[in-house]
Design a protein that fits this description.
4 domains, 49 strands, 10-stranded mixed β-sheet, alpha/beta, 7 helices, 13-stranded mixed β-sheet
């Protein structure tokens, strides 16, 4: 029977063979050394009970490694660590057997071979010298494990603030009706045609703010990204202001902007073309610039422009109000047409403002004298108190003029774009010269500044009002035509029409049953009717009235003098006599008056 060997409690036990059997064989395994009789055995060895057998387990150390990695942008450093591994072995019990190979059970333990200074040295070898995260390194050393750890962080560059641009006008019209303050919806005002005037700020560019440089973990400076820039291109009707940071309109019209990548191109288109009719589908047109309508103006709508207006169709029960010439190629029926309308209102302002200037200048001089005299008499009065006294006793026309100016302003401000300096002047009048406000006026410097501004406004209003605008149309019925310049009716004529012109009125056809007031003169083909319908033609004191054929009932007024025709006349020429005491009429009798066209 062969011998056997086994392991018990960490020791080798042996049973010798009997009856000629073979001894047990013992061989060392992994991680263990076998000593037989004091000699280390590395190969299988027969053993007996009397042999001295000893086991010695091994402890092995597998060295780790550490590498430093930098992020591509240089802003982070990572320590990639594989710790040292310590392997120790236990020898478990093994059952008796003839050939015993010592088995072992390994036990693993990791160990970090670095301290803080050694980690810093590793980082320095890799060039890392900025932004070392001491707390992160110490946390790793306190609980080391394999892995990749952030150990340094640089300072990233501060990102720049890109240039940006604010568009200050609607790029798309909403086409929605306007809701008024009282809650009513106005379907005539559809917010479709936006326009601007000179000086309007169309866009504002906000300049870029450059970023601040950063620093990499190796201590190198990291340049910030350049900010995105915006290029502004100014086309017609626009210009740069405010150091190139603002786009302003230099003319009237419709503002537009087109974008191409980082380029913005601005323009103010001076004219608006409305294809087709102006009706409820388009709503009213209110435009700073010229307007052309290829159809008619109908359904009680309004076309208002600061420039020229051209209507290729008719105007039916509507209003057309142009700052420049108004040309209507179709008929005008039950409508109001104005050309240079705002100039007419500027004229209305110019007269009382000039009168106010003429009266207020001596009133201020007199007020200054009153204040000085009161001071010499040991009394004190303020400039406003002195003016109020003078207004009451010596210059009663000044309060009347102020009231007239304020009423006129309230009347027209909602319908017309008034010059900004005029608006500011009226605000000063109301603030300083009405009611108890006048008593609070205590500085002659304020009065001097006001008089200077008043003089400038009067001069500018006269210049603006001097530009004439004309009306041209073929035919008008039951309508009102008002022009700062001339009114020319080229076709059949006018029936029941009121015409007011700052220049000359010329009607090549019939003018019947209305009133025409042409400041510089009137020329009419046929005036009145066989039925004696009252028709009035008025002109200024220096104007003339010329009529090819005039019916009875026609009234001609030149200046303050007038005459009424009681018989049919032809080739009529009427003007004031040299003394301006009466109207002199040069005419021929019309023996057989032609029948007037009836309507």
């Amino acid at each position: 029977m062969n011998g056997k060997a086994w392991v018990q409690d960490g020791r080798i036990r042996v049973r010798n063979p009997v009856e000629g059997g073979k001894p047990a064989v013992v061989a060392p395994g992994r991680g263990v050394r076998l000593f037989v009789n004091g000699e280390e055995v590395t190969e299988p060895r027969p053993v007996l009970e009397e042999d001295d057998l000893r086991i010695e387990t091994l402890t092995e150390r597998v060295p780790g490694e550490a590498k430093v990695h930098l992020s591509p942008d240089g802003l982070e450093a990572f320590l990639e660590v594989k710790l040292d591994t310590i392997v120790s072995y236990d020898v478990p019990d093994q059952d008796p057997r003839e050939n015993l190979v010592l088995e072992t059970t390994p036990r693993y333990k990791t160990s970090c071979p670095y301290n803080y200074e050694q980690v810093v040295a590793l980082l320095a070898e890799a060039g890392v010298r900025y932004g070392i995260l001491r707390e992160a390194v110490e946390a790793f050393l306190a609980r080391p494990e394999d892995g990749r750890f952030l150990v340094a962080r640089g300072k990233p560059p501060t990102p720049p603030v890109d240039e940006r641009i604010d568009i200050l006008f609607p790029e798309q019209s909403t086409g929605k009706p306007i809701v008024r303050e009282d809650g009513r919806v106005d379907f005539y005002e559809l917010d479709k045609f936006f326009s601007v005037g000179p000086g309007t700020v169309l866009a504002r560019k906000h300049p870029a703010v450059p970023g601040q440089p950063g620093k990499s973990v190796t201590g190198e400076e990291i340049a910030p990204q350049p900010p995105r820039t915006i290029e502004i291109v100014t086309g017609q009707g626009t210009d740069l202001a405010g150091g190139g940071l603002q786009v302003i309109a230099t003319g009237e019209g419709r503002p537009t902007v087109t974008r191409s990548q980082n380029t913005y191109r601005f323009e103010v288109i001076p004219s608006l073309v409305c294809e087709g009719d102006v009706d409820l589908s388009t709503g009213n047109i209110r435009f700073k610039g010229d307007v052309k309508v290829t159809g008619s103006v109908t359904h009680g709508t309004t076309v208002q422009a600061t420039g020229k207006i051209e209507i290729l169709g008719a105007v039916l029960e509507s209003t057309v109000d142009g700052g420049g010439d108004v040309i209507v190629q179709g008929n005008i029926i039950a409508s109001t047409i104005r050309a240079g309308g705002h100039r007419t209102h500027l004229e209305k302002f110019a007269v009382p403002l000039e009168d106010l200037l003429r009266s207020l200048m001596p009133a201020v001089v007199a007020a200054r004298q009153l204040v000085v005299q009161a001071g010499q008499g040991q009394r004190r009065i303020e400039p406003g108190q002195a003016l109020m006294l003078l207004f009451d006793r010596k210059y009663p026309e000044i309060p009347v003029l102020i009231k007239k100016i304020l009423n006129l302003y309230r009347e027209v401000r909602s319908n017309f774009d008034l010059p900004g300096n005029l608006v500011n002047l009226v605000a000063q009048i109301e603030q300083n010269f009405t009611g108890v406000n006048l008593l609070r006026l205590n500085d002659f410097k304020v009065l001097a500044s006001f008089l200077t501004e008043l003089r400038d406004v009067v001069t500018e209003l006269k210049e603006m009002a001097g530009v004439r605008a004309n009306i041209s149309a073929p035919y008008a019925v039951n309508s009102t035509l008002e022009a700062a310049g001339d009114v020319v009716v080229t076709g059949q004529g006018c029936y029941g029409v009121s015409i007011h012109a700052g220049g000359t009125i010329r009607v090549t056809g019939v003018f019947r049953g209305g009133e025409a007031h042409g400041k510089k003169g009137i020329i009419v083909g046929e005036a009145g009717s066989e039925m004696g319908i009252r028709t009035t033609l008025r002109t200024g004191a220096r104007g003339k009235v010329e009529i090819e054929k005039a019916h009875p009932g026609v009234v001609v007024q030149v200046g303050a003098r007038s005459t009424e025709f009681t018989a049919p006349l032809r080739n009529v020429k009427a003007a004031l006599d040299p003394e301006e005491s009466s109207v002199v009429v040069d005419a021929l009798k019309w023996e057989r008056p032609l029948r007037g066209t009836s309507i």
